[in-house]
Amino acid sequence: MKKIVLLLAASVVVSIALFGCAQPAPPEEKTPATPAEAEKIVVCALFDPRIPVLKADAEAIKMAVDEINAQGGILGKQVEYIHEDTQRKVDVAISAYRSAVLEKDCKIVFLEGVSEEALAIIEEGARIFPTKPHIVISSQAAVGTTFKVIEDYDKYKFYFRNLPPDPELNYKVPKTYFEFAKNVIGAKKVALLLEDAAWTECARKGCVYESKFGKFESKPMREWVKEEYGMEVVYEANIAVGEKNFLPMLEEAARNGAEYIFVLSSWYTDTITLSKQWASSGAKDIPISYFGGPNQWAVFWDLTGGAALGTFTIMYDTEDVPPVTTKTREVVKKLHEKKLSVDMSVHYYYSEMYRVKEAIERVGSLDIDAIIKAMEEMEFKDHTALTPEYNYFGYKSALFHSYSGGPVLLAQFQCDGKLVYITPPELLEEAGFPEEAISQVNPDAYKSPAELREMC
Amino acid sequence: MLDVAALIFSYTFIFGSLYLGIALGFTIITGVLRIFHLGYGAIFLIAAYGTWMFWKDVGFGFIESIVLSFALVALFSFLIYQVVIKKFWEMEDYLLAALIAVFIIIEELVNYAYPEIVGVYLPTTIIEGSISIGPASIPGQLAATSVIAILMVICYLLIFTKTKTGLIMRAISQDIFASQLVGVNFDRMFIVAMILASLPPAIIMLLIAPIWALNPFIGWPLFTYAIVVSVLGGLGNLRGTIMASYIIGFIHAAVGFSLDPRLMLLASLVVVVAVLVFRPEGLARAETIW
Q1: Do A203 and A120 fall within a single domain?
Q2: Paired strand residues for A208
Q3: Across the A/B interface, how many CB contacts are shorter than 8 Å?
Q4: CB 3.0 to 4.6 Å from A431: which of A29, A332, A407, B270, for a disulfide?
């Protein structure tokens, strides 16, 4: 007990020993593949199943694979789904990735959306791609991977991002929120709470990138919110990953007269705790909205014990979600039956499996170079959450091999956790959402947190 | 300016009392048993998820479930002592490894049985909404938690200073070998201390459930607070833990309201390290728990 340092070091060693032991087993000696096995198309999903959202991502891919196999596979070949655990650690992810491509002959690798893992895997992939051609798809946001593909295409062309990169993700998507805050809430003063992570760098500090496709510039959020929406940013704070104490931020937002709080969150911001503290703080009458995180689940209501009343968020997790395609609701229903919740990324991974199928079928073989080209050029219409313009991969811009950002479905938690879709319909119209989806959103159904507390 | 001062003052009390409640049990264990209980974080999980299990899965009433979860926490502490601590008492490195392994096992079991998506929530709100103190606004539940944390400390101080059991514990804390020589059954006292020490974290966990997320990984951040406070205070010294709790509370409130909330934890860690450089034994290291 006297040697604290020794003790803490021992605990770290034990932790490392406990987690480190879970490295993938050494490759087993393989027997030659039978003709039936050789006909398989192997798809690998590298996700940490301990984290509910990542488990749901992996299950969504598996569900798509099962559906595809039930329909006869791809080019008459069955698709084999293999899951590898990353433990959300870069070294384990690299090991799982090598095992997937080199030993299990994966042609398509889906990787969880963790930028640190993606940045390491894109380098490892560049080494093994020439001898083992394959494709990697990941929903991470830090823009660095995109510029690698743009600057050294032949080396990194195997990498796709089923998400917009930072400048786009944190500009075009939040615009839906600020349109709403300005025109529906009538807010003139805003507080920004921004997750302090690699994927939000452009939103926090602004950024400029030079590339083959020209110069890309993104202003910090505080600047464009003022310039484009005339809203004064009266308070701004960065949220540390894992932060549990949001009260100083909330009280300061209230003290500075904020009329709306925008939280740029991901799964690393504890929006459950944030909601609970907001609901019992001096900021409880200020409308608050979230970006990514468990707030994208309908069960967020239960997780917060109802403290989410009045908050609003991106939402694609209800069985009556305004449908982008005929499959949108079906996917949600099927995953709910498996006791899984459906955030945006789940739709993205599910849909990408179908894009891969379509690309392979267009090419007519497993020629990876040709499939990459097809994925860049094709207009994919079966995405369950995005219209074709927003999931196109072949942009000759900083969005190359990435989605682009645009309007999203926002919903507010009202009485008893009922989710009401409130995105302004004109935004969805501009983005090419189908009429059926547009008819199901109604910004006038929004109610202030104070009103809801009184009503419910 | 007055607004900020009021906020800092109010939240120093709130945060300080909360950290005191979180660290109280850890201090008792380090003070009496003189071990670094790396499995302490598991108690938070057992209290929260035990209550949920008895309430939702077994079907008991909510209050009965809380009582049963406290019994489960006590049983866990008893078993930890009998199976792990007693066995590895003389082998510090094995003891630490075993304790942290138990913590991780509990965490994994909870994550397996009740992943976040289950939506575990405990309606333990005592005071809803917020309380205004001058220009400052404080969540009512945190104010209630703070008061209860202070009451718990007073109760434990009374136990340590006014009861025979408490006096024996202090004697063990001061010199275990001398205590043995005068016939103290330290084995039984250790079990009592372990069980007594398991109650404050269990109570605090239930009290903060309405304002903190409940997930299978909640044990780590709470355990971290307990370590930071106890190390700064001087391991195993209740006076030091009280001082350290309010110092950390003040740092968090001052940095959070007047500088940048992003720097709260960093600032407190810098202060802890700085203090340890000049006082490696912590603020109030003493030979006994009180």
Answers
A1: no
A2: A217
A3: 133
A4: A407
Which residues are CB-neighbours of A27 under 8 A, at least 6 positions away?
Answer: A99, A103
Q: Is the dihedral of CA B186, B189, B194, B200 positive or negative?
A: negative
CA distance B118 to chain A (A): 8
Residues 6 or more apart whose Cβ sits within 8 Å of residue A320: A329, A440
Number of domains in chain A: 2
pTM: 0.88
pLDDT tens figures, B18-68: 999 999 999 999 999 889 999 999 999 999 999 999 999 999 999 999 999
Per CATH, is B2-278 categorized as 1.50.10? Answer: no
Residue A252 touches partner B, C-beta closer than 8 Å: yes
Report the SS3 class of residue A194.
strand
Range(s) of the domain holding residue A369:
36-138+327-384
Domain residue ranges of chain B, discontinuous segments joined by +: 2-278
3-class DSSP state for residue B131?
A: strand
- Strand A260-264 to strand A207-211: parallel, antiparallel, or no bridges (unpaired)? unpaired
Q: Are A247 and A377 found together in one domain?
A: no
Please compute the mean of the pLDDT values over residues A51-59 and round it to a whole number.
92
In a domain, A244, yes or no: yes
Cα–Cα dist A239/B46, whole Å: 29
CB A224 within 8 A of CB A182: no
Is residue A414 in a domain? yes
Q: Which residue of A has its CA nearest to B111?
A: A50
- A280 in the same domain as A183: yes
The SS3 of residue A209 is strand
Q: Indicate the residue of A1, A272, A307 with minimum beta-carbon distance to B36.
A: A1
How many other C-beta atoms lie within 10 A of the C-beta of residue B176? 17
